[in-house]
Amino acid sequence: MATVMRSSEKKKSVPANDDATAIAVDGPPLDHDAPFMGESHQRYFKNKLLAWKAGLLEDVNGTREQLREGPMREPDATDRASSETDWSIELRRRDRQRKLVSKIDAALRRLETGEYGYCLVTGEPIALARLDARPIATMTVEAQERHERNEKLTRED
Fold first, then answer.
1. Which domain holds residue 82?
2. pTM of the predicted structure, to 2 decimals
3. Looking at CB atoms within 10 Å, which of 33, 118, 133, 140 has the fewest?
4. Residue 91: helix, strand or coil by DSSP?
5. How many structural domains are present in the chain?
C-alpha cells in the first residue's frame, strides 16, 4: 500500500548554487513594464548578479577549507580511489564556477557601461525572460542559436 504525502510534507527540490534561477534577489521583483534596462532593471540584475557571485564564492571557500583539513587517509585502496575521483569531480566543478564568476564580473562591467541587456552580435535587446534565467547572457536566443550552429559546423570540419 502506497503512502500519500500531504503537500506540506513533500520534499522541496533545491537547485544547485551555480543555477542563476535559484538566486533570490533582494528588493522588488523584475518589472516587465518598466523601460528596458532602466534604473529598476539595472538594480534588479545587479542585485541578482551580486547574489549569484556571493553564493559561488561561498561554495569555493568551503572547498578551500576542506582541502586545508589535510590529505585523505583512506586505509583501503578502493576507498582512496573513490575519494580521489570525488575530489577530482569537485575540483572540476569549482573550476567551472571560477569561470562563471569571471562571466558574472563581465556582466557587472557591462551593467556599469550601459551595454548590459543588449546582444553583443546584433545590438538588439535580449529578452528579459532570458536575462532573468541566464543573467550572464550576451546574445539573443536567435544570435546564440546561429553561433552554436556555426560552431557545430566548424567542429565537424
1. 34-68+77-156
2. 0.72
3. 33
4. helix
5. 1
> Based on the number of CB atoms within 10 Å of its own CB, is 40 exposed (0-12), middle (13-18) or buried (19 or more)?
middle
Residue 30 CA to residue 42 CA, distance in Å, equals 10
Integer CA distances (angstroms), 98 to 24, 46, 92, 106, 146, in order: 20, 19, 10, 13, 27
Question: What is the rounded distance in angstroms from the CA atom of residue 71 to the CA atom of residue 142?
Answer: 48
**Is position 2 within any domain?**
no
Q: Is residue 24 part of a domain?
A: no
Q: How far, in Å, CA of 61 to CA of 65, rounded?
A: 6
Buried b (16+ CB within 10 A) or exposed e, 68-90: eeeeeeeeeeeeeeeeeeeeeee
